[in-house]
Structure formats: structure tokens, C-alpha cells
């Protein structure tokens, strides 16, 4: 056992920081079968694996790692698929340091087993080689299911319900499916080809994917029931941008991260000159916020040609909510961090374009409702930073389009759907909901977990009643 712990954590090969900060290719380039098998040897195959408890969907982590160790990559992917239908995505974007790897026993004395990297390796190996048997569909039930929203929660419900034998239509408002995985998370972190390959897999199983369909506008829930759908899942996400309400915020050159990233990712500004989507290419860019969205925006700004990309965050480094790997990558690429700093005003030129941000230094006071120490302004600490683009990445709210046009759908005071957290059932008979539209902006794996729970409950309803 001691021998096992001596193998060092196998590093993930990456593009060199200076080079990658100017291109949109994926940053980590992936492990080889040899290094994956070596990493898998570090797992102690615990009898009571803490990592499984730490995984929100309960993947049999020692089970799949044991198979990787023996070079059985195809069996390993089948093992992961038992609990997680999007491992290539989760291996790349889950906050493993707070979940499985955060509690891995090896991590008590050494670096934890690289569970996320191994999950990614197995999923990529299968995508390249296509050796695993396609999951079998249960016999047709004759029931029809509508899934609204094609983010990770909607994709999970669509996959589970088609395999349970129901007919499934997936409605997506945008012209491409994938939700935040496609319009939010940039190519250098999650190549779109991976998400589209998952959606192609669903289509191959028989899911009817209908893009450009804004449910609540082009068709209502009542009309879907009239069209013969027996059950509806709402996975419409929390994509409504939040602003700061600071003077000058409507100057030209200040925009939400949602708009900035959507223009770059979904509308392909990142592939200029092939696509000529308008986007402001700032030279000195300030991003406000400290989560994954802020890291993605600041790193995108560098890749779109910024000389300086600065993150302004009102708490300290310890409180940054972004994944540790993203913060590390952003630092390596040259993103500057101004901690304990908050904006008070934006200043424009005579044409109404932003040219500077005024702010105040902060110190940390008592913990607030979130348990994090509240930032308190320091008197007399005013400062000004020049800038020509400001990206606001301070959170997002519930997508209101469908929820507000659907009578009888119970919402909480922030506009999120009140749904049973165990089953996803809403106040409307035959309607389930899950993911960010229920919990508020959260994570991919939690949205998937909610989708799986709702799919089980919907299947019960369709086969046994409400
Ligand atoms: P979404 O992914 O938001 O999908 C909802 C879909 O519903 C969208 O495609 C939307 O167009 C569609 N829709 C909305 N209204 C309608 C309608 N009326 N009719 C039809 N379709 C509709 N999480 C992590 O775990 N790790 C990360 O590294 C990470 N990075 C992130 C980076 C960014 C930039 C962002 C924005 C989020 C990030 N997250 C990350 C959070 C994560 O992406 C979300 O928690 C997750 O995508 C939520 O999934 P969802 O299925 O609930 O909703
Ligand atoms: Fe392996 Fe770590 Fe999980 Fe134990 S906790 S089974 S060592 S990955």
C-alpha cells in the first residue's frame, strides 16, 4: 500500500501559458493511456470510498479507476455511464477539489488521485474509438415527453427518458443545443465538439432535437399537452444577467458576461475572420466578479487581443468561488487580480464610451448570510483604473420567459421554480423542473443530478400515475 502512495500524481499536459493565452484551443491536452494507467495505480480501492460520497451523482469511482488500471477503458466508460451520462464534460468542468478529489483519502498525505483527469481520459478514449456498446432502450411505452432547455439538466432527462422507452422531444430556444456548455463555457475549456457529440448520441437514440423553439413564446405548456405530450421537464437555466447598479454602468463598452461570452462562443466571434460577429475587443479589460464566469471572461478577453485583463473582486483570493484550476490557469496566462476592491462609478468620454472605473478598497468584516466574510469599504481608499471594456460577471438570475408566461407555476421570490428537490415535481400536474432554474446558478453536475431524479419520478408517473 505504501508503494502505491509513492507514485506522484501524473501531471496533465497543457499548452504553454503564453501561447494558449492567444488561442482558443483547449488548454489541457489530455493524458496518454500509459499515464492514465499509472495514475489509476495511485487509488487505494478503499472499502468505504469517500470519493463516491463526495460525487453528487455517486459514480463508482474506485470501480472505474480499477478498470483503467487494468487498461479496460471500454469497461470503465460503461461503469461511469451507469451514473453519469456526460463524463467528458464533467471531467473537464466539475469542481473536483470540492467534491470527489477534495475527500480522496490519498489527498490526506499527498495530492489526491486525479479522478477528474481519469474521467476525462476514459470519456475521450471512448469518443475516439467508439468501442462501448450503445445503451439499450427499454420497450416503447407509447408516452411522449417534452424537455424544455438543452443544458446539462435537459440533456440528462432526455437521455434517461429515451432509454426508459418514452418518445422524447428536446426544445431549445437558441439555434444550437447545449445550454451554458455551449454559449457560456469557452472552447479553450470545453470544446463544443464534445457537447455536440453528446447531442448527436441522443439524436441517434431517437431524441427529436428542436432548436429555435422558445417554449412560453412559440408554444405554451398547455399547447404541448394538447399536442399529446404526457409529461414536461423544465430545465431553462438561470441565464438572466445581473448588474451592479453603479453610476455609469450603461456606458458603451460595459456589458454582461452573458452577452460577451455568448457573442464569443455561440455566435463564434472567437473564430474571426471566418465569422464577423461584432464584439468589443478591449485593450485594457476589467472583469468584475470572482466565479468561473469571471475567469472565462477575463481569459477570453486576452484571447481576443487585450494587452491587460484585470479581475476586480470585492473579497480576497480565499473566497474566490471559481474552480481552483481556472484561477491557476488565469494567473499563469497573465490575468491580473485586484482583490478586496469594488467599483463605485464608471467614467465615459464625450462619445459615451467607458474610459475608466473608480473604486474603493475593501476589508473583510463579519460573515454574511452566505457564511463568507462581508466586504466593508475602507474610507479614503478611492482609486481609478483606466479601461476600454468592462465585463460584469457578478451572478445571474432566473430565465423569466417561460416561468412568467405559465399560469399556475409556483415560483419563489427570486423567480426560481418551486420544485420538490427529491423528485423535481412542480405545482403543475405533469410538469417537472430542475437545474439552475430551481436552485439558482449552480454547477453542471448538480443540474445533471436534478435531471436524473426528475427522470425517475417522471417515469414513475408515466407508468404508475402522479
Ligand atoms: P443551462 O445550461 O443554462 O441550460 C438552459 C437552456 O435552456 C439554455 O440552452 C437556454 O437557451 C434554454 N432555454 C431557456 N429558456 C427557454 C425556453 N423558454 N424555451 C426553450 N429553451 C429555453 N459549472 C460547473 O460545474 N463548472 C464550471 O466550470 C462552470 N463554468 C461556468 C461558466 C460559465 C460562463 C457559466 C455561465 C456557468 C458555468 N457553470 C459551471 C455553471 C453551469 O454551467 C450551470 O450550473 C449549468 O449549465 C446549469 O444547467 P441547466 O441545464 O440548468 O441550464
Ligand atoms: Fe481511490 Fe481516493 Fe476514492 Fe479511495 S478515496 S477509492 S483512494 S479515489
Reported for the largest beta sheet, the result is: 5 strands, parallel
Helix amount, in percent? 25-40%
Radius of gyration: 23 Å
Ions, cofactors and other bound molecules: flavin-adenine dinucleotide, iron/sulfur cluster
**Mean pLDDT figure:** 94
Within the CATH hierarchy, at the fold level, what is the topology of the largest domain?
FAD/NAD(P)-binding domain
Number of strands: 16
Number of domains: 3
**CATH level-four homologous superfamily name of the largest domain:** FAD/NAD(P)-binding domain
Under the CATH scheme, which class of the largest domain? Answer: Alpha Beta
Number of separate helices: 19
CATH architecture of the largest domain: 3-Layer(bba) Sandwich
Shape: globular
Distance between the termini: 51 Å
Q: Which consecutive residue ranges, at least 5 long each, have pLDDT under 50?
A: none
| Structure class | alpha/beta
Can you list the strand order of the major beta sheet?
A: 3-2-1-4-16
Percent of residues in beta strands? 15-25%
Can you put this structure into words, describing what you see?
- The protein has 3 domains: 17-129, Alpha-helical ferredoxin (Fumarate Reductase Iron-sulfur Protein, Chain B, domain 2, Orthogonal Bundle); 144-239 and 397-464, FAD/NAD(P)-binding domain (3-Layer(bba) Sandwich); 243-394, FAD/NAD(P)-binding domain, CATH 3.50.50.60.
- It is of the alpha/beta class.
- The chain has helices spanning 2-6, 17-20, 33-40, 50-54, 61-69, 73-81, 87-93, 100-103, 115-129, 152-163, 180-183, 192-205, 221-226, 257-264, 292-303, 324-333, 400-404, 436-439, 444-464; strands at 144-148, 167-171, 208-210, 231-234, 240-241, 254-256, 284-288, 308-312, 336-338, 341-348, 354-367, 373-377, 383-386, 389-392, 396-397, 431-433.
- Helix 14 (257-264) crosses helix 15 (292-303).
- It has a 5-stranded parallel beta sheet with strand order 3-2-1-4-16. A 5-stranded parallel beta sheet has the order 6-14-7-8-9.
- It has 19 helices and 16 strands.
- Flavin-adenine dinucleotide binds at residues 93-94, 148-154, 171-174, 179-180, 184-185, 213-216, 235-237, 239, 261, 292-293, 296, 323, 399, 401-402, 435-436, 441-445, 447.
